[in-house]
Amino acid sequence: MKLTKILAVLSLLFPVFALASGTEERLDLTSHWVGYTALVLFVIAYIFVMVEEFTHFRKSKPVIFVAGIIWAMIAWVYASEGLPHSTEVALRHNLLEYSELLLFLLVAMTYIEAMKERQVFEALKVWLVNKGLSFRQLFWLTGFLAFFISPIADNLTTALIMGAVVMAVGGSNVRFVSIAFVNIVVAANAGGAFSPFGDITTLMVWQKGVIEFSEFFSLFVPSLINFVVPAAIMHFAIKNESPEAVQETAAMKRGGIVIVILFFLTIATAVSFHNFLHLPPAMGMMLGLSYLMIASFFIRKGIYDDFDIFRKIARAEWDTLLFFFGVILSVGGLGFMGYLAFTSELMYATLGATNANILVGILSAVVDNIPVMFAVLSMNPEMSQGQWLLVTLTAGVGGSLLSVGSAAGVALMGQSKGFYTFVSHLKWTPVIALGYAASIYAHILINGV
């Protein structure tokens, strides 16, 4: 009884303690000038995001600005209608979704930074460079490694590692580098589609509880087909010759293997928290961060190494993390106005789930797949489990259709010294589209039930 009274008092003093009833009144702002203004602002912000490569204006800046303006306009309308609490509850819900994603990604990025600093990836790169492989062998090996590494690491890091190998071995062969980079982008995106850890979109789907951890692996064969079909065709465009021998040296720093093991343990912890304890995976990841923090103390103390875990946290991709904040809050605001319900009706009720989910993948090649998938999750259309798996697949691999459709493609354009461009990728888009269609067909055949 005392606890109930205390909570009642706290809910009056601090609204955060008040529980939302879930029945707060919503206003349809889709035909209101505020709604139109919000849409225009979001489109303008996303144009800035898409041309970041040329303007060097960080993508997080416009979307955060627009997110703040959108919610300020919503709050103003609701306050004028005497409904200020509804806006607050909705905004807190969006902030909760973002905070879980932020903590999860922050831990993953910290581990990746720690492995980079311990030269784990550099050692892998040197090992591949020194193998003396032919161009065709290197093409397939970097492709398969990208496919199998990206489910654990993110597709951006995976693409950069494999891209560095290709540049080190075949940097003078423009044609080989161009084709190999296309292959790496397709493989990294395909590999990330069958794992909750492989892409931001799959992570969002898993954290939302739409698809269970083990169910993602039913997308393995469709994802593999998405990579292998275009790779098999591109294979014949590479001359069967060997590059000049290259010898490099790089030693993994002490503690590197320990950090890799702790990273896998952290993943297992996050999965266990979600599957067995029914807690958010982000909580398991934060526990996993403590593993690394404790290990960093002994790494520094044991070998007098300048290994500072808080520097690794600081080196996380904060521009990307803040970009997610802007996207989630902006899309959440548009959804609260009523646009997502309208879009859901337009797409899923009119086109049908299969066609709509295929369209989602194509859209993700033009617009980043993160806002597209977050919009689908927010719309929450009535779909079977097979359809949710389909949209997870298409949103993950659809970005491969264009070089600007994924973080992997954008990063490799910057790494390739002009060898891999939007146009050079576009030449292979029909082949990639064939793999896209084949993966969808395979999914329907295998997971149709």
From TrEMBL:
<keyword id="KW-1133">Transmembrane helix</keyword>
<feature type="transmembrane region" description="Helical">
    <location>
        <begin position="184"/>
        <end position="204"/>
    </location>
</feature>
<comment type="similarity">
    <text>Belongs to the NhaD Na(+)/H(+) (TC 2.A.62) antiporter family.</text>
</comment>
<feature type="transmembrane region" description="Helical">
    <location>
        <begin position="216"/>
        <end position="237"/>
    </location>
</feature>
<feature type="transmembrane region" description="Helical">
    <location>
        <begin position="320"/>
        <end position="342"/>
    </location>
</feature>
<keyword id="KW-0813">Transport</keyword>
<keyword id="KW-0406">Ion transport</keyword>
<feature type="transmembrane region" description="Helical">
    <location>
        <begin position="95"/>
        <end position="112"/>
    </location>
</feature>
<dbReference type="GO" id="GO:0015297">
    <property type="term" value="F:antiporter activity"/>
</dbReference>
<dbReference type="GO" id="GO:0006814">
    <property type="term" value="P:sodium ion transport"/>
</dbReference>
<keyword id="KW-0915">Sodium</keyword>
<feature type="transmembrane region" description="Helical">
    <location>
        <begin position="257"/>
        <end position="276"/>
    </location>
</feature>
<protein>
    <submittedName>
        <fullName>Na+:H+ antiporter, NhaD family</fullName>
    </submittedName>
</protein>
<dbReference type="InterPro" id="IPR004680">
    <property type="entry name" value="Cit_transptr-like_dom"/>
</dbReference>
<keyword id="KW-0812">Transmembrane</keyword>
<keyword id="KW-0732">Signal</keyword>
<keyword id="KW-0472">Membrane</keyword>
<dbReference type="GO" id="GO:0016020">
    <property type="term" value="C:membrane"/>
</dbReference>
<feature type="transmembrane region" description="Helical">
    <location>
        <begin position="133"/>
        <end position="153"/>
    </location>
</feature>
<keyword id="KW-0050">Antiport</keyword>
<feature type="transmembrane region" description="Helical">
    <location>
        <begin position="428"/>
        <end position="446"/>
    </location>
</feature>
<dbReference type="InterPro" id="IPR045016">
    <property type="entry name" value="NhaD-like"/>
</dbReference>
<feature type="transmembrane region" description="Helical">
    <location>
        <begin position="63"/>
        <end position="79"/>
    </location>
</feature>
<feature type="domain" description="Citrate transporter-like">
    <location>
        <begin position="49"/>
        <end position="396"/>
    </location>
</feature>
<feature type="transmembrane region" description="Helical">
    <location>
        <begin position="282"/>
        <end position="299"/>
    </location>
</feature>
<feature type="signal peptide">
    <location>
        <begin position="1"/>
        <end position="20"/>
    </location>
</feature>
<feature type="transmembrane region" description="Helical">
    <location>
        <begin position="32"/>
        <end position="51"/>
    </location>
</feature>
<keyword id="KW-0739">Sodium transport</keyword>
<feature type="transmembrane region" description="Helical">
    <location>
        <begin position="354"/>
        <end position="376"/>
    </location>
</feature>
<dbReference type="Pfam" id="PF03600">
    <property type="entry name" value="CitMHS"/>
</dbReference>
<feature type="transmembrane region" description="Helical">
    <location>
        <begin position="388"/>
        <end position="408"/>
    </location>
</feature>
<feature type="transmembrane region" description="Helical">
    <location>
        <begin position="159"/>
        <end position="177"/>
    </location>
</feature>
